[in-house]
Design a protein that fits this description.
It is built from 14 helices and 16 strands. It is of the alpha+beta class. Helix 6 (about 180-190) packs across helix 7 (about 195-210). The two termini are about 35 Å apart. Bound molecules: guanosine-5'-diphosphate and manganese (II) ion.
Length: about 425
């Protein structure tokens, strides 16, 4: 599960990480008044308007704007609320924007050119923007703190182009991030004077937050330094973006995180599947797959690919799906208009083949097509094996009239070849 940046900022703040104040706006009409309120509270006319969607790359896409007047704030809000946000992270169709964050804007200190060893090769002076995250490293089977001086940009790009610019510090499985580790990372990142303690404290808090809330990712990009002042010559280290994902298997024990769930950001078909206990992930091919078991679903997708086809989805109906769940599964698969054929691949262990067969027949009779007619129009290839397979095959054979597009398959290869041929 993911949350919005404004919610992520609240989480950071609740763990003592300094974040500029902000308010959420949902209409163009609220923009001017909210701008004035945020500016008055921060004592600066600089405000940042940011689209709240579950994807990054907003800055480059024009969905993070620094504004200095109520008029500019309103223009930014109008643009963002009336355009879909298309970034490298969204795909070409982009995302609808319904919420904006109006936050106190901050000045970011200039970074001296040439600075540290990590920075050599960077000729023009840039801003003091850093990357900081905690996630799980599957290779070392530890949680890991990831940090970089090359913040503000896509970390994947940095990892690809300049892997030496990324610092990885493993967290101790029981003791978490140790103070000496945080200080060393702060030092390596080039923080100076009082910045070192500020940054180390933020790292420690982020690591605590990650574990306390069962995150899979807790990311601040960028973490910044404000320009020094006479009173505070080293400036302030602040988080100005927040990205979180949580382990879905653990959200049950975090009511506060559950409350942040925003269904409008989810794929509607995936949400529907969740309600019926189905694991469904939409893909961009044209062969719908209905399978029991995640491993078999993966193998099915592989074999479809092997025979030149392209799966439209991953769908695992699980080991104990009911007839109702199978009916729903078909309805979800066929609601994707790219689906030109369906392959059912069931290995009945706990699942009985006759239950699946009954589900297929039931779904076929109930399924409504866009033109108002009922029944399956697309080719349907079914491979059943295992418990009660004879009963299942008999049910399907007897229901031939309500399943005109049905092609029984003898095994996995036969099924994949048949569905790929049918789809063309
Ligand atoms: P993302 O592109 O979706 O990751 O959105 P971010 O919140 O990270 O913003 C993108 C970039 O906008 C940052 O890397 C900063 O360079 C800039 N930015 C965002 N907020 C502020 C701000 O308050 N002040 C200044 N000066 N720049 C900001
Ligand atoms: Mn960012």
């Amino acid at each position: 599960m993911k949350i919005h940046e404004y919610q992520g900022r609240q989480l950071l703040a609740s763990f003592g990480i300094p974040v500029p104040a902000g308010t959420v706006v949902e209409s163009i009409e609220q923009a001017a008044a909210t701008y004035k309120q945020v500016a008055a509270e921060s004592g600066s006319d600089l405000v940042v308007v940011k689209a709240q969607v579950h994807a990054g790359g907003r800055g480059k896409a024009g969905f993070v704007k620094l504004v200095r007047s109520a008029k500019e704030a309103e223009d930014a809000a109008r643009f963002m609320l009336t355009h879909r946000m298309v970034s490298v992270q969204t795909g070409p169709e982009g995302l609808e924007v319904t919420k904006l964050l109006f936050a106190a804007g901050v000045d970011i200190a200039d970074r001296a050119p040439g600075g540290t060893a990590l920075q050599s090769g960077v000729s023009s002076p840039s801003k003091e923007e850093f990357y900081l995250a905690v996630t799980t490293d599957r290779t070392t089977r530890r949680n890991v703190l990831i940090a970089s001086r090359e913040g503000g940009v896509d970390i994947e790009t940095v990892a690809h182009d300049r892997p030496d610019a990324i610092i990885k510090e493993p967290l101790h499985p029981l003791m978490g991030l140790q103070p000496h580790q945080a200080r060393r990372v702060a030092f390596e990142l080039g923080f100076k004077g009082s910045q070192i303690n500020q940054a180390a404290k933020i790292m420690a808090s982020l690591a605590k937050l990650f574990e306390a809330k069962d995150c899979t990712l807790a990311e601040i990009n960028p973490l910044i330094i404000t320009p020094g002042t006479a009173k505070n010559p080293d400036g302030q280290v602040l988080a100005i973006d927040a990205k979180f994902s949580f382990d879905d298997n653990a959200t049950f024990r975090h009511k506060d995180i559950q409350a942040m769930f925003d269904p409008t950001e989810e794929n509607p078909a995936e949400l529907r599947a969740q309600r019926f206990g189905l694991s469904y992930i939409a893909l961009d091919g044209n062969i719908g797959c209905l399978v029991n078991g995640a491993g078999l679903a993966m193998a099915t997708m592989d074999i479809v690919k092997l025979h030149g086809g392209s799966p439209a989805n991953f769908l695992d109906v699980g080991g104990s799906a009911t007839e109702e769940a199978v009916t729903e599964a078909f309805s979800i698969i066929l609601s994707d208009h790219n689906v030109k054929g369906v392959m059912v691949n069931i290995f009945g262990g706990i699942m009985r083949c006759d239950v699946i067969a009954a589900g297929i027949i039931n779904a076929a009779t109930k399924h409504k097509n866009p033109d108002g007619s009922t029944g399956f129009k697309v080719p349907l290839v079914v491979r059943l094996e295992g418990t009660n397979v004879e009963a299942g095959r008999k049910l399907l054979a007897d229901a031939k009239s309500s399943l005109p597009t049905l092609q029984p398959a003898t095994d996995l290869t036969d099924a994949a070849m048949k569905v790929c041929k049918a789809v063309g």
